[in-house]
């Protein structure tokens, strides 16, 4: 028996269906709003092919771990390293210091195949938007490589048992992974998205298809493959950024892909389409196209602006396909087929691959915070550092750290989430400002009995707010309490809030307003003066990132300013709630302090106002505090 599996051109066509929507979606074309499911399709295909290969070799008695991993390395590494090398000069020349630092660190994670974990850790509230991360897409390669480490071992262990038990074992793994993906998609969405355990069920679905080895009739094959195409079309066009694809919703594209793998026999119309020259041609360069699309688009946005014009987006796609073709012809094929005489030896290939990986990691570890941007201010990265307020220790569980207060007997308490943190400099920079104490935590609004459900939030936030009130009761020297919160994330219909009982429910404006008023009433009943400060005016884009790119590239930062007419939906909803609150409680409106004549400046008098989409920079906060006399404003408005 040959240990080689038969070439199936329709799988190349399926790869084309997977990669094209991904590229179009990331380029800004929303026809395929669920284009990201192309990655899920790739996982199923990989599970099918890898399992088929390993299974055949085991049955033929010729499986070799060395041979398996060498083939995987020849398939993945040359094109991957070539893509990174192509990125380096442009990242060096164009990225801002903090983003270049992140890029360099990501190079190391890619070479170690842990970039899924690296980017999972980069999904915090303050991180750079995904469209500006050139290597973000490599998370899926990392997941595959992690699965490759265990998959052959698992199949070898299962081979000693009968087919029935192998199927039961694979179904059990898939069910457990799917259940974890569904649960975590609600409670730890970023973990569910990036980590291998919640993706293994998709890989296993492909493995089950490989184990079935069906020879379907024309009727059954036509029905199965047609249903699969319909399922993929529905997922690609109906899913959006709110769909929790790592859970039950992901069954649609995964089962659709499986139906095509099982049913697209040569006498079906689906096979005819997928095996056509156009689909096969795109499928053959799909790996290179996937590798290059994210860095091309990310770097284009860095130079041309976050919102690419249709012409710029099409140009980026064209460049991606050209690079993919070059990669397939002169990088992928020679290495896989061992056309290069000096690389035919497994030993030479291993030495070359390790040398390339070590060289790239050495570059990543030796980055300069200022990167290749010697023409920019050396302190640009410092100027846009995350604004935790008085200190990094002021974000998290209450520790009453001395770093989070400016005197032994604080007079002002700053309480809220990250939108409260960025007000610390505004208060301390004001003339005559008294001692301040900061009690803040990202994602924890100053609400009584209500909090956002999700990572690092929920009931813990409710308990923390109760502790703050208890502390306030025992510290009568505190005369003023300043509350601030982003609010909009509490009103997002696709997210949940929790009450004291801990049950996730949709947040509503009356619910959030009542919880905020309970806090205000509790503070007022303690005899303290209290005021609410609104969130920053926002337009839905990363204004701070726009500023950094403009300053790094010598462009006019005024291009990052925006009109009040372009407020984001979150800003509109937050301000709508605060206007209702203002009929009973004092509110300080940041939009009235920042925006003038219907225009909101991102950069003023040489000062970076916004550090990201929703927060003041340290210098912007201090500037606002001095210009507006923020402490006097608090004292005058507080009740």
Automatic annotation (TrEMBL):
> Which UniProt keywords are present, listed alphabetically?
Acyltransferase, Membrane, Transferase, Transmembrane, Transmembrane helix
Biological process GO terms, please? lipopolysaccharide biosynthetic process
Sequence ranges assigned to domain Acyltransferase in this UniProt record? 10-329
Annotated Gene Ontology cellular components are: membrane
**Per the database record, which ranges form the SGNH domain?**
401-626
**Keyword Protein biosynthesis: yes or no?**
no
Q: Does the keyword Acyltransferase apply?
A: yes
Name listed for the protein in its UniProt record: Acyltransferase
List all membrane-crossing ranges. Answer: 12-29, 35-55, 76-96, 102-120, 167-186, 219-239, 245-262, 310-328, 349-367
UniProt-listed InterPro entries:
Acyl_transf_3_dom (IPR002656), Acyltransferase_3 (IPR050879), SGNH (IPR043968)
Looking at the record's lineage, which domain of life comes first? Answer: Bacteria
Q: What Gene Ontology terms describe what this protein does at the molecular function level?
A: acyltransferase activity, transferring groups other than amino-acyl groups
């Amino acid at each position: 028996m040959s240990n080689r599996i038969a070439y199936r051109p329709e799988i190349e066509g399926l790869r084309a269906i997977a990669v094209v929507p991904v590229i179009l979606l990331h380029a800004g074309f929303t026809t395929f709003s669920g284009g990201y499911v192309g990655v899920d399709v790739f996982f199923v295909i990989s599970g099918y092919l890898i399992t088929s290969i390993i299974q055949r070799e085991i049955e033929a008695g010729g499986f070799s771990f060395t041979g398996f991993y060498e083939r995987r390395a020849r398939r993945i590494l040359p094109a991957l390293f070539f893509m990174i090398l192509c990125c380096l000069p442009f990242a060096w020349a164009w990225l801002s210091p903090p983003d270049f630092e992140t890029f360099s660190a990501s190079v190391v994670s890619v070479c170690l195949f842990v970039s899924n974990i690296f980017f999972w850790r980069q999904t915090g509230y303050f991180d750079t938007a995904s469209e500006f991360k050139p290597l973000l897409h490599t998370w899926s390669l990392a997941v595959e490589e992690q699965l490759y480490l265990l998959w052959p071992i698992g199949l070898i262990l299962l081979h000693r048992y009968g087919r029935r038990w192998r199927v039961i074992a694979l179904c059990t793994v898939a069910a457990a992974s799917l259940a974890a993906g569904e649960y975590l998609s609600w409670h730890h969405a970023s973990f569910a998205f990036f980590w291998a355990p919640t993706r293994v069920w998709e890989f296993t679905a492909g493995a089950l298809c490989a184990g079935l080895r069906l020879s379907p009739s024309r009727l059954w094959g036509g029905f199965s493959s047609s249903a699969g195409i319909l399922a993929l079309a529905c997922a690609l066009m109906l899913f959006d950024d709110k769909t929790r694809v790592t859970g039950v919703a992901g069954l649609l594209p995964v089962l659709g892909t499986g139906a095509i793998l099982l049913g697209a026999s040569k006498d079906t119309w689906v096979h005819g389409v997928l095996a056509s020259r156009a689909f096969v041609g795109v499928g053959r360069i799909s790996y290179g196209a996937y590798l290059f699309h994210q860095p091309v688009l990310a770097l284009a946005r860095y130079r041309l602006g976050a919102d690419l014009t249709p012409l710029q987006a099409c140009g980026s796609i064209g460049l991606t396909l050209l690079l993919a073709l070059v990669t397939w012809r002169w990088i992928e094929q020679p290495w896989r087929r061992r056309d290069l005489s000096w690389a035919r030896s497994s030993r030479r290939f291993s030495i070359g691959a390790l040398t390339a990986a070590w060289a790239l990691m050495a570059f990543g570890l030796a980055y300069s915070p200022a990167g290749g941007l010697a023409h920019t201010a050396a302190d640009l990265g410092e100027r846009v550092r995350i604004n935790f307020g008085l200190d990094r220790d002021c974000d998290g569980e209450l520790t009453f750290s001395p770093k989070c207060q400016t005197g032994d007997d604080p007079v002002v308490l700053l309480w809220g989430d990250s939108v409260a943190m960025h007000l610390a400099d505004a208060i301390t920079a004001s003339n005559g400002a008294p001692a301040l104490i900061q009690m803040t935590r990202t994602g924890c609004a100053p609400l009584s009995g209500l909090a956002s459900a999700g990572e690092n939030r929920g009931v813990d936030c409710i308990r923390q707010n109760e502790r703050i009130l208890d502390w306030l009761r025992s510290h009568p020297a505190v005369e003023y309490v300043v509350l601030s919160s982003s609010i909009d994330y509490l009103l997002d219909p696709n997210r949940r809030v929790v009450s004291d009982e801990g049950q996730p429910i949709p947040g509503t404006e009356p619910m959030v307003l009542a919880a905020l008023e309970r806090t205000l009433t509790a503070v007022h009943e303690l005899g303290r003066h209290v005021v609410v400060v609104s969130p920053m005016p926002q337009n839905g884009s990363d204004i701070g990132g726009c500023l950094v790119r403009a300053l790094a590239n010598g462009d006019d930062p005024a291009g990052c300013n925006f009109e009040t007419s372009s407020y984001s939906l979150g800003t509109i909803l937050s301000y709508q709630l605060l206007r209702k609150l203002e009929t009973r409680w004092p509110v300080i409106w940041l939009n009235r302090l920042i925006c003038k004549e219907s225009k909101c400046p991102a950069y003023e008098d040489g000062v970076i106002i916004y550090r990201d989409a929703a927060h003041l920079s340290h210098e912007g906060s201090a500037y606002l505090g001095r210009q507006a006399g923020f402490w006097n404003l608090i004292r005058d408005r507080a009740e």
